[in-house]
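We emphasize that the prediction below concerns an isolated chain of 283 residues; any contacts that depend on oligomerization or on bound cofactors are therefore not represented. The input was used exactly as deposited, without trimming of termini.
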Amino acid sequence: MSYNDRPIGIFDSGLGGLTVFKAVRKLLPAENLIYFGDTARVPYGTKSKEAVIAFSKEIAAYLLAKGIKFLIVACNTVSSSALAEIRLISGVPVMGVIEPGVKEALKGGAARRVLVIGTSATVSSRAYSRALRKKDRRVFVAEKACPLFVPLAEEGWCSGRVAASAAEKYLGPQKKRGFDTMILGCTHYPLLKKIISAELGRGVRIVDSALATARSAKAELETRGLMRGTKTEASAGGSKRSGKKPGGKGQSRFIVSDAPEKFRTLASKLLNIRAGKVVVKRF
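Result of the prediction step, given as a token string:
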């Protein structure tokens, strides 16, 4: 296997990172992907920073041992508290979800009042506020923790009265504050996007960090010459050049730390594929 044929590793505390997986699979159909869902310890948003760092380093080391070429941390809680520690142990490029979401929110200069929703840990870290203001000091930023959204998504309760009531409780008071942009600061939250959008009403742009991360990952792979189906060769002058060859269709692997059957059922619905095709191995 050539280096570029190695898989991209993606991990999250549960199934929320599948929103990133799905977007990456659509943009990069030739890439081999390994997804790890830490279903035994979800949610991460209520855990201490020390616990999140320990869990994340363990999973990152596991995926690195699988021979990945690129690692996507598809969890906002981990991206806000453990990204630096993961990079210290990684021999491959590591991408979180916060920076891509921030770039997407500020693209075009339309964002002036931004609401970020996320887990308690992500909101407490103020990672989004710092990242947004670093790029544009004129932007007003507010952050709101919505902790019930993760267990609702994990149970598949992404619509109906329970989800709508949670959205109203968290977001109802925010409607009169004049936000023009909202960042879904948790990869579980796109699963409740319709409920969230309906509660806020028209006129508020919803930034899906999962889609933004997939676009950033593709750009990074292209820049580094790591796309499957490309090879980098030395030219006569010693510089690098890329050549292309057919990449074929990439393989997908799923690994969880607990409840593989539950994960298979929900993942098949989210990815819109037959449950029999979602082969899940237990960690």
